[in-house]
Design a protein that fits this description.
The complex is a heterodimer.
Chain A lengths: L6 H5 L1 H22 L16 H32 L1 H16 L2 H15 L4 H29 L3 H10 L3 H36 E4 L2 E4 L3 H8 L5 H31 L16 H8 L1 H25 L2 H6 L8 H33 L10 H30 L3 H15 L7 H11 L3 H31 L3 H9 L4 H35 L1 E4 L2 E4 L3 H8 L14 H37 L5
Antiparallel strand pairs in A: 1-2, 3-4
Helix pairs in contact in A: 2-4, 2-14, 2-22, 3-4, 3-6, 3-8, 3-10, 4-6, 5-6, 6-8, 8-9, 8-10, 9-10, 10-17, 11-12, 15-18, 15-20, 15-21, 16-18, 17-18, 18-20, 20-21, 20-22, 21-22
Chain B lengths: L2 E10 L6 E11 L4 E5 L6 H9 L6 E6 L2 E2 L7 E4 L11 H11 L4 H14 L15 H14 L4 E5 L7 H16 L7 E5 L3 H7 L2 E6 L4 E7 L11 H16 L1
Parallel strand pairs in B: 3-8, 3-9, 6-7, 7-8
Antiparallel strand pairs in B: 1-2, 1-4, 4-5, 9-10
Helix pairs in contact in B: 2-3, 2-4, 3-4, 6-7
Classes of the chains: A mainly alpha, B alpha/beta.
Chain lengths: 596, 250
């Protein structure tokens, strides 16, 4: 998910800490402004014959969130790439946002936002779309930023020399350079979006849950229905069908199409071809459809751009000439407003943070360090288990392009399964059938759910690293007659190490995201939980019970616990990323870089 | 005869229609011969080289090495690549030793051999440098040393000088000829792919012209000019011109 962080972003550690503090205060501000109890709504159907309609609703929400993410990624990515000084703050904030599990503690705040809008279906849908957006947008913005900065120098110089600027530069150089990276990251984002869907379609706050009709809420409510096994299987089946359909009809043809945007100096002999793509481009119906769509979009764009005379575009493009008086005054005003908003958020955040915490101290707060430690161990175990099966698999498959492509498709589909969709399976196996007892049964069941949130990122990134090994290096090793082990030690292991480390960071991020589902499992009216930060956050949002650790919490205590727990988790993750992963990544990408 | 390609074709299987790159190539390679394969881009020169090395099997036809049909990679060959193909995380010495270790040579012998060939290509003092610290010419010297160190019976070169600047490539060409002529060194037979016709006439005993789509052997030209060859001589110019006109005809 995470693209490699560039070196100057690594250097901007001041921006990093400032970004972290801003985010924490912003979260407190949002939580404070929005926090008040809400009544119970349910729009979820949970009825089998409505399943296709539910699925359609979910797809619509995903599409809306994706369009939002795409716009966000292009605007922020292009803006940051053209302005190194702003990038020093934007990039760290994006980096934090993509490594913390927003979905785990944001729903509570948003549920209240829904309430402010009257609890109507529209407000709920907007909230759900915004939530899906938070699991889609960051990696895409990163990818745009990095692709723009990676435009080969000769092409940039050529554009300058030919006087290609402004809108033309945006349309002919900047955006096309982003296409391959953006496509790959779109697929990852959709996967993350499906994974988060259950959490986004059910907003829980203070013992009250609000559900929207959709695939995610269907799957989530299946666990508590009369026949959880059948309903769970049905929900997963429909989800898989939708994901596979999108893969076949959209991502595959788009992947073939996106090849033309690569800056590649070597000709690859394996050029891919797609019959579907040819039909999309040449078929009568697709051409009619696209002509109508493209022509009307083009007209619209012309009207808008002529109105604004490119002023909005100029804002996100690198500046060339010295700005005039009016422009300078405008920029100054924007800066003042920006600082005022930031100051407001800071003061408000501090105020709400303190007032939420004051006098509402829950006995559970003292368990937070232990909970984070236990959860970290669980993720680490899931990560090691993932390595144990992915590394041999990838080594076996690395010269078989068809198998590799198949593997990445399968991984992508399975990674889309929300953790909660598998609970019916693991609880049935480990707790009900094998009778492993409450402790070991739930621990193992949770670990398996956790692995589903971890292992695919490891596999994804290893496959990506493998595909980037230049062909002539492999040929050189073959021609020297290196044995399998020697080839692994001297070529494959060093070459995939940088992407494996990137995969590790995202895998741990995926793990943190999964914890709220894997540490407190609701199944058939019962709760199976283990001590951990995921369970604590569930308690804080009211979807799990404190058990024997504490008496039931008041809504103020819940708010305080949510704020402290989420804040502590965020700080832990950021410190760990800075101190461990970033250093390892910097070392690996310097030592094992392949450069010609 | 060292090597023989007998009616070899190569067809690439893509998702779309299969692409025939080489059609019915027959080529004999004698020991102690220096062969240059020339031809326009996309005529299958590099594919021919990979068939000789056994990096890929032919789709039809047979490849013989010393009268035995080849199966898999021929470890008596060594290859020099256009873009050097050095492992960026290994030092110069480690890159060269790798191929020797693959042949189970004892470590001390491998080190000795590595030192010898580093000296031969003039890289003394750069044993512990990483490829990214070297210039293009020096990188290709490492590539050459790596190939020579395994003392192959057949040295294969895939456009070895085309990624280098002219002056560097002139120097390296001369050194290559010296190494080839050096009786103390094992390498005696060279097959080189190039699209530079002058380079081919300067180096080769025989120039093989491959052209067309799919690629076929259009001509075999023996270059009967005594070495060292003078690029400005009439004979040299005549050879270059005749190959040019042959290529233009296809």
């Amino acid at each position: 998910m995470a693209a490699d962080v560039t070196t100057d972003a690594q250097r901007s550690s001041v921006g990093y800490w400032v970004g972290l503090v801003l985010l924490l205060l912003g979260a407190a501000f949002l939580a404070g402004v929005l926090h008040h109890p809400s009544p119970h709504y349910s729009h979820a159907s949970g009825v089998i014959w409505r399943l296709p309609v539910d699925a359609a609703w979910s797809v619509l929400r995903m599409v809306a969130a994706y369009i939002l993410s795409l716009a966000f990624a292009l605007i922020v990515g292009i803006y940051a790439a053209g302005r190194p000084r702003s990038a020093r703050f934007i990039i760290p904030i994006l980096d934090i946002l993509q490594s913390i599990p927003i979905v785990t503690f944001f729903p509570a705040a948003l549920a209240v936002a829904v309430d402010l809008m009257g609890g109507g279906k529209l407000g709920m849908n907007i909230a759900a779309i915004l939530l899906v957006f938070t699991s889609m947008a960051w990696n895409m913005a990163f990818s745009v930023y990095e692709n723009i900065r990676a435009i080969p120098r000769d092409i940039q110089e050529c554009a300058e020399a030919m006087g290609i600027r402004g809108t033309q530069r945006l349309l002919t150089i900047s955006i096309p350079s982003c296409v391959p990276g953006l496509l790959y990251n779109s697929i990852v984002s959709w996967t993350a979006g499906w994974f988060a869907l259950t959490a986004c379609e059910i907003l829980t706050v203070g013992n009250k849950s609000t559900a929207l009709p959709g695939l995610g809420s269907f799957i989530a409510s299946a666990n508590n229905s009369k026949n959880p096994f059948v309903m769970g299987l049905l929900g997963v089946g429909v989800l898989l069908t939708v994901v596979v359909g999108i893969e076949i009809f959209i991502w595959r043809p788009l992947g073939v199409w996106a090849q033309r945007f690569r800056y590649e100096m070597t000709v690859s002999t394996m050029s891919r071809d797609s019959a579907l793509l040819r039909w999309y481009q040449q078929g009568r119906f697709p051409r009619f459809f696209s002509r109508v769509l493209v022509v009307s979009l083009h007209r619209l764009a012309n009207v808008i751009f002529n109105r604004m005379r490119g002023s909005s575009l100029r804002m996100i493009l690198p500046r060339r000439e010295a700005p005039g008086h009016a422009a300078r005054a405008m920029a100054g005003a924007v800066r003042v407003v920006g600082w005022a908003v930031a100051a407001g958020v800071c003061i408000g955040g501090l105020y709400y943070g303190i007032s939420t915490l004051q006098g509402h101290y829950s006995p559970l707060v003292k368990y937070i360090p232990l909970a984070i430690g236990l959860s970290f161990i669980r993720i680490a175990v899931a990560y090691l288990l993932s390595l144990m099966w992915t590394v041999p698999l990838v080594l076996w498959a690395y010269r078989k392009p068809r198998i590799l492509r198949g593997l990445s498709s399968v991984a992508q589909v399975l990674a889309s399964l929300p953790a909660i969709s598998l609970t019916f399976l693991v609880i049935n196996i480990f707790v009900i059938h094998l009778r492993l007892g409450h402790f070991w049964g739930v621990e193992i069941a949770g670990e398996i759910l956790l692995m589903n949130g971890v292992q695919w990122y490891v596999l994804f990134n290893m496959l990506g690293g493998l595909s980037r090994i230049p062909g002539d290096l492999i040929e050189a090793c073959d021609a020297m007659g290196l044995s399998r082990w020697k080839k692994f030690r001297n070529l494959l292991a060093p070459a995939i190490l940088p992407s494996l480390l990137t995969g590790t960071v995202t895998a741990f991020g995926g793990g943190w995201n999964t914890l709220v589902f894997s540490e407190a499992i609701q199944y058939a009216g019962r709760q199976y939980s283990v001590m951990g930060i995921g369970w604590l956050l569930d308690v804080a949002s009211g979807s799990a019970l404190p058990g024997h650790y504490a008496p039931p919490l008041s809504s103020h205590q819940q708010g305080a616990l949510l704020l402290v727990g989420a804040g502590a988790l965020m700080i832990f993750i950021v410190i760990f990323n800075r101190l461990v992963w970033r250093r390892l990544q910097a070392w690996a990408s310097d030592r094992f870089r392949i450069e010609y | 005869m060292l090597m023989k390609l007998d009616n070899v074709s190569k067809i690439y299987q893509t998702d779309g229609p299969p692409a025939t790159v080489l059609a019915d190539i027959s080529l004999d390679i004698d020991s102690n011969e220096f062969i240059c394969i020339v031809g326009p881009s996309g005529s299958g020169k590099s594919t021919t080289l990979r068939l000789i090395n056994g990096l890929m099997p032919p789709s039809t036809g047979k490849v013989y090495f010393k009268d035995k049909p080849m199966t898999g990679i021929n470890l008596q060959c060594a290859m020099v690549f256009q873009n050097f193909a050095l492992l960026p995380w290994l030092t110069v010495a480690q890159n060269i030793t790798l191929g020797l270790e693959a042949r189970n040579m004892p470590r001390t012998d491998a080190m000795k051999k590595t030192a010898l060939y580093i000296d031969k290509v003039g890289l003394d003092g750069f044993e512990d440098a990483y490829p990214r610290e070297l210039s293009g010419g020096m990188k290709q010297r490492v590539g050459l040393a790596r190939a020579l160190a395994i003392e192959p019976e057949l040295l294969l070169m895939d456009e070895p000088f085309s990624a280098l600047d002219p002056l560097t490539s002139i120097n390296l060409r001369e050194e290559l000829l010296d190494i080839w002529a050096d009786a103390n060194l094992a390498v005696s037979t060279v097959v080189m792919v190039t699209h530079n016709i002058e380079e081919a006439v300067e180096l080769a005993d025989r120039v093989v012209l491959v052209a067309g789509r799919p690629g076929r052997i259009v001509a075999n030209i023996n270059v009967a000019i005594p070495r060292p060859r003078n690029k400005n001589s009439d004979a040299f110019t005549r050879y270059v011109d005749s190959i040019f006109s042959l290529m233009a005809e296809c």
